[in-house]
Write a structure and sequence with these properties.
alpha/beta
Length: 362
Amino acid sequence: MENQKPLQNGNKVDDNLLAVDNRDRDGDGSALIFLGTGCSSAVPNAMCLIQPSDPPCHVCFQSLSIPPDRNPNYRCNTSLLIDYCSSNGKHNYVIIDVGKTFREQVLRWFTFHKIPRIDSIILTHEHADAVLGLDDIRAVQPHSPTNDIDPTAIYLTQYAMDSIATKFPYLVQKKLREGQELRRVAQLDWRIIEEQYDKPLFASGLKFVPLPVMHGEDYICLGFLFGEKCKVAYISDVSRFPSNTEYVISKNGAGQLDLLILDCLYKRGSHNVHLCLPQVCSTVSNNSSSFIYMVRDRSCSIRLFLQTLEALKRICPKQALLIGMTHEFDHEKDNEFLMEWSEREGIHVQLARDGLRVPIDL
């Protein structure tokens, strides 16, 4: 596997993003590790395997012949691990979201990238693909049959807290009821993110600014802005950016991002609670004519670039990595398309993949 060039202020994430970095970790600085880049139902899509179409789905059927660690089209629930190396050389590990596939991600990528623990957890929202792995946090905590260990800090909104208290009452219960047996469960220190979202939080020494976004018009989800030397925004579930949030992460607002990690559910069309490729391309674009050329060149629907025109000259990061994809996306083929688009637009955009490690100067 190829090495990944570190992402420093002004440097581009280059073609090596198509490979999983496999360098010796000793002495390395900070890095972003993509534990999952797929949608809630993950990829492969189970229906493509148990009721295959004719011809069968190429992306999903790869899972039957290529091991997941060598298959960029094998995608678990979206989750990002931040390996933060502070100025004293100490590494802290912050994970954003702990979804349905968390245990699989630990077995595959914690072992591959030599991640020894989790120091802090941040939740974007309380949907199943972001929280249903919380029970398995105990598997990466020190073993104690009496739960006598330091709890892991977990940051979330009050709305998410209330929902999780219903889903996992035993994880938030402070005292045993009379007659209740003690059982080993994950030990978590619940820390509420204030609803105003204007105050940053510090998880394991790294500053995060909450970014409220619409995940459907009836639901607010959080993204997060972090990094002092390289500015990174992680936004996994979004259908629309409120103006205040867009200003904070826009080139024409508070300043250009070095890296935008962004939701991208479908290749074609639109969705009511997620961004899809047509909207994503318009979100990161600063040049309409080149994308129109590409759409025609690829014989896509004219409707596609009309959606693009509606959202031109917006966020415009230096580079973007897309996550949350369904089985519509073929990693290699669609990254070739995005590479051509990137060259014309001057903004490097690629699909991320599970296991991708991006060294970065935070």
